[in-house]
Amino acid sequence: MTEVARLAWMAGRIAAAFDALPEEQAAAAIAAHINQFWAPPMRRGLLAADAAALAPRVRRALALVRPPASP
Amino acid sequence: MGLIRETDFGTPVRQGEATVSLVIDGQRVSVPAGTSVMAAAMHAGTKIPKLCATDSLEPFGSCRLCLVEIEGRRGTPASCTTPAEEGMVVRTHSDRLGKLRRGVMELYISDHPLDCLTCSANGDCELQDMAGAVGLREVRYGYEGANHFDGVKDESNPYFSYDPAKCIVCNRCVRACEEVQGTFALTITGRGFDSRVAPGLTDFLGSECVSCGACVQACPTATLIEKSVIEMGQPEKSVVTTCAYCGVGCSFKAELQGDRVVRMVPFKQGGANEGHSCVKGRFAWGYATHRDRITKPMIRGSIHEPWREVSWAEAIGHAASEFKRLQASYGRDAVGAISSSRCTNEEVFLVQKLVRGALGNNNIDTCARVCHAPTGYGLKTAFGTSAGTQDFKSVAKADVILVIGANPTDGHPVFASRMKRRLRQGAKLIVADPRRIDLVRSPHIEASHHLQLLPGSNVAFVNAMAHVVVTEGLVDEAFVRERCDLGDFEAWARFVALAENAPEETERFTGVPAAELRAAARLYASAGNGAIYYGLGVTEHSQGSTMVMGMANLAMATGNIGREGVGVNPLRGQNNVQGACDMGSFPHEFSGYRHVADDATREMFEATWGRALDGEPGLRIPNMLDEAIGGGFRGLYIQGEDIAQSDPNTQHVTAALRAMECVVVQDLFLNETAQYAHVFLPGASFLEKDGTFTNAERRINLVRKVMEPLAGMAEWEVTAALATALGFPMRYDHPSEIMDEIARVTPSFTGVSYAVLEARGSVQWPCNAAAPEGTPIMHVDRFVRGTGKFMITEFVPTEERTGPRFPLILTTGRILSQYNVGQQTRRTANTAWHDEDVLEIHPFDAESRGITSGELVALASRSGEVSLRAVVSERMQPGVVYTTFHHARTGANVITTDYSDWATNCPEYKVTAVQVRRTNALSRWQETHQQEAGQLRRIAPAAE
Fold it and tell me: Average pLDDT, stretch B350-374?
């Protein structure tokens, strides 16, 4: 499993790239990007992360991140 | 097949619809206006004797051998410098002309060694040919007069020699260096009889010569000739193939004796290079038969054991059983593969097919991850397809050329020669680069603006350019209205118009004076034809994808898309980066850039391959390494890549490799990565392959085998055998059948086949029913995605920051004579130009640290430390240092970090905070690396 800190950092950078968007649009864009490009172990790790370790906009996007099927 | 002798028209073949009609030796011929009489005669099948003329060069008119008679004109004009005119009546042969030509030849031969039988050019000498053509039977002047026979040979260049005794001073070499290469390294010294060709006031190796070979190609005698021809003699047959170095994808004639390469000669009909070459493609092919080649499969139980040579069957069987074991123990996703941009489309296609079909996951990635992945993401988002918009020829129509983060004269030298030709014709140049690259000021070229921005500030820069375009009324409103999504445009225009994006505001990030940036933006936007060319200085940043979209925005806003002379053009690093991406090497996409989650596409592949396929994206290379260290990823098949040298933060990479239980490396050499491998499958060089490469202009070129694979198996056969051993049979008899499958499953390739490529030489994708002849220029009438999409490109600075401990920024790159990790070029005489990585540092930074050129310095970052020699250079700006990553022993990537592009995880090679200090020792990493390298590469003696 990739370190949660690494996943949180990556998700944070994605969120920063969509910073100019209104919050709801940003959440959708962040989640869409993660769903499109992140492999299941990474999404699993992110979804299991302590919310406090995540940027606020990432936290909001988590609800839209597709949970992977069980390994 | 014999030796291919390409037609030489004597002067350039002109293009154009307007023609003129004339009569030559009683035969009527029509040619494009501007064609010379000499070339017109050749069109009619008549060879006019010549020495100073060749069709890669403008006519010069010095040898006076090509004289003709023209009705109504006095004298005997030179046919090379006389344009064909309507109604002209020309006679190319007469007693008078024969006498004149023999007189000219007598003068030449009276000062030429008569050693034809032992001359290295015997059989390939135009002087010899012309003596025959004009019927030279005597030299009335004798051979005792003044001559140049005592001229001293210059053997300094490792690949060719210069023998002034054989020089006829035709100027072809000098003109080739100027007109074809654009380096202006050669000149004629002296006057009259003393005239001699010279590389300035030094020898060839010490001169400005870049060893492209254009002078050798142009020389009509043995004056400039390949040392391989001197050693081996003349070749007897040719095979046309494609260079395996950079993304220009030059076509070459491999000229052979049997299956031994005598020389590689650039092919005039090659669409990418049109007869030109660089030092790598032309001369640096000796690695293919280097003694370091590993030609027997090997396995070992652990990396601490010596390698054991085994049969192909045992090696492949062992790799397959290990991968099966790992999947059984750790899950289906615990293994994956990396394909290579150095391999053919067919090989790459099979590797990703193996992963998806045999391993049952999408853990396939390619080395484009660490170079042009942001290009794929950015251009697909903006335009709808992951590729550059133009063909290389397009640059000849550009009015303003904007080069961002690329160093074409080093990285893409043959394309750079095209670009320089256009610049000499008057096109304007803007260079945005932290370094003063050669293009900024070179002979007859000077950039209108060198925007010496700080590494990491590209997005601030491009937003400022856009700000000027939008706020100064420079938007091509008609183009935007007709071609682009207006809602997206308006949102983008509002964003870039914000005061925070004004050049006066971004100056604090970029370091570029606002007035100069404004002037550059105005120049680009009002160019007529503005063309953007970019390289890894754009992509290898934490905002690489944002920057690609920023450039796409700029091009769309100014209407610089969809015709010749414009566009957004990635200069791809390796020979088949474009192809590797096209072939489905990314973990989220099938071939043709279709997402694995798309049910219709996946079902089509499932039906074709007979396997259920995973609809989830797989791991990218950095993710594989992270997962390996976390324990979730245990096995990796690496074809033709050397991630232990090329990828960032070497110690992280090697820790990940050490954590895996089965690493399979398929390569020519025991490279850095192979030190951590358990199975070694010998690879094949490009000379041992049939297949195709796709270059940076989407041109699909054939690679043709000139010798059998040294290890006995082609790389595609090895992959197919491994897939079969994994329980997913692959049955092909020839790579052409793999291409047929690619064409069946990939919409942009449906018109591609080996038969088409043989017939046309090459095609540029999309090549399908809608574009049966291929597509040199994309997005002509509409964007692939329909309307062009403007994206908001917020500047998010990298988190890699300078500070008291690490006050300088390191940026890395490459140089002309070496290629990527140097596995190939380090095994050639190219080391004469570059035998170690050095650190370029500005005099200010050097002086404040007491550093002088040639001294050993320690280069340290938060990731690690290495030692290398310093070169004090004003090419750098204060605060920025530069090095290359060509030499494993240096370990440049020990220094680089894990920071990466937000969208693609492309590493941020271009921005690393570092400190530099004097030292007298190698770093700890370098010492350990030296000790371990021998240990981890041991091969057990073969059993008798």
Answer: 96
- CA atoms of B156 and B176, how far apart (whole Å): 20
Cα(B577)–Cα(B25) distance, integer angstroms = 51
B249: region left, alpha or beta (phi > 0 left; psi from -120 to 50 alpha): left
Nearest 10 degrees: CA dihedral of B870, B650, B818, B849?
-10
Chain B CA closest to residue A13: B902
Residues of A in contact with B903 (CB under 8 A): 14, 17, 33, 37
Q: Are strands B589-590 and B679-682 parallel, antiparallel or unpaired?
A: unpaired
Query: Which residues, in sequence order, are CB contacts of B328 under 8 Å at separation 6+?
Result: none
A40 contacts B363? CB cut-off 8 A = no
Strand pairing of B335-339 and B364-366? Answer: parallel
Q: How far apart are CA B339 and CA B166, in angstroms?
A: 49
For residue B767, pLDDT beyond 90:
yes
Cα gap B865→B845, rounded to integer Å:
18
**Per-residue pLDDT at B124:** 95
Binned at pLDDT 50, 70 and 90, residue B527 comes out as confident
The 10s digit of each residue's pLDDT in B368-392 is 999 999 999 999 999 999 999 999 9
d(CA B369, CA B340): 10
Q: In this structure, what DSSP letter does residue B78 have?
A: B
| Cα–Cα distance, B186 to B573 (Å, whole number) | 29
Average pLDDT over chain B, rounded to an integer = 96
Gap between the Cα atoms of B836 and B884, Å rounded: 9
**Residue of B308, B309, B318, B294 lying closest to B663 (CA atoms):** B318
Give pLDDT tens digits for B50-82.
Answer: 999 999 999 999 999 999 999 999 999 999 999
Residues 870-929 of B with CB under 8 A from A: 898, 900, 902-905
Separation of alpha carbons B43 and B901, rounded Å: 54
Q: What are phi and psi of B452, to 5 degrees?
A: -85, 70
As beta bridge partners, residue B808 has B914
- Measured CA to CA, the distance from residue B839 to residue B933 in angstroms comes to 24
| SS3 (DSSP) at B301 | coil
Q: CB contact, 8 Å: A33 with chain B?
A: yes
Query: What pLDDT score does A3 carry?
Result: 87
Residue ranges per structural domain of chain A: 4-62
Alpha helix (H) ranges present in B208-311?
214-218, 227-232, 279-283
Q: With contacts defined as CB-CB under 8 Å, which chain A residues touch B905?
A: 10
Question: Predicted ipTM?
Answer: 0.97
What are A42's two structure tokens? 């990474």
Q: What residues of chain A lie within 8 A of the CB of B619, using their CB?
A: 39, 41-42
Domain architecture of chain B: domains with CATH: 19-93 (3.10.20.740), 160-289 (3.30.70.20), 298-371+576-692+705-732 (3.40.50.740), 373-570 (3.40.228.10), 808-935 (2.40.40.20)
Q: Are B426 and B448 in contact (CB under 8 A)?
A: no
* Most B CBs within 10 Å, among A3, A7, A13, to test the B interface: A13
| The residue to which tokens 């043959």 are assigned | B414
- At B853-868, the pLDDT tens digits run 999 999 999 999 999 9
Amino acid at B549: M
Please list, in sequence order, all residues whose beta carbon lies within 8 angstroms of the beta carbon of residue B477, skipping any fewer than 6 positions away.
Answer: none
Pairwise CA distance, residues B630 & B529, whole Å: 51
For tokens 């300088």, the residue is B808
Asked if B543 and A10 come within 8 Å (Cβ–Cβ), the reply is no
| Residue B675: DSSP 8-state | G
Dist. CA B684–CA B691, nearest whole Å: 12
> What is the rounded CA–CA span in Å between residue B261 and residue B688?
12
- Nearest by CB: B627 against A2, A18, A68: A2
Cβ atoms B212, B150 nearer than 8 A: no
